[in-house]
Amino acid sequence: MPRTRLPGPRPRKSLGQHFLRDTGILQDIAAAVRCPERGVVLEIGPGTGQLTEYLLAKGCHVVALEIEDRMITHLERRFAGDPRLRVVPGDARLFDPAEVIPPGMPFAVAGNLPYFAANPIIRHLLESFPKPVEMVVMVQREVAREIAAAEGDWSLLTISVRVYAETELLFDVAPEAFDPPPSVVSSVIRINLRSEPLVPPERNAEFFEFVSRVFRNPRKQIHNGLSRGVWLPPEGARAALEMAGIAPSRRPETLTILEWLRLMDACIEVRVDG
Q: Which of 39, 157, 185, 238 could share a disulfide with 106, CB 3.0–4.6 Å?
């Protein structure tokens, strides 16, 4: 049976666009979004407005951030006269939330993120100011599982999100739910931002540089990764691990963020003493 064509502009392959068409999934996403009291939902990449319609029907006030002029024109026509929607041009990887969200207003984020831009968009929102209270976003299933991985199986991506937030894997979405169908399965995740990040902002660059150096071989013992990735005096790696209370045989993927912080501080102390 032929698929009914969605109203509005067609998706562009050059931009990696796959428009969600399954009404059941759209309802599930909208139901998962918690509209902040006296706040707004920032919808990333609304496209033709399929999810936008459900968010508005739920009673949310929506700021729709859209990169394409043709989509902006379509959205303004489709929802003409609805005071709860404001369409804003912009690239979600680069925009300044302070220029889009009124001062002091809480906001949540929702959207079907382009696969190629999902990580930069999430990282940008986590590090920006003001920050959302939460995000309910769709990404490639493998990325979602990495972000929401259980302790003991973390990657650099996991850590880069968990510094700022707790995560929850909500549900998977089959390719057939999209127009056109992608070649991968997608997943919807919730990212709940912490009131304060686990790493102090002034140490952010130092922390991620340290972790990335040690994390180059995540399945090797932490002692080997530390010895090869960070300059320390002779026997400094073992001394730093002992000081941080971390067994040398553990793998980098098993360390929590607080353990990484302890290890980084121990390395600094070992260098000073050495």
A: 39
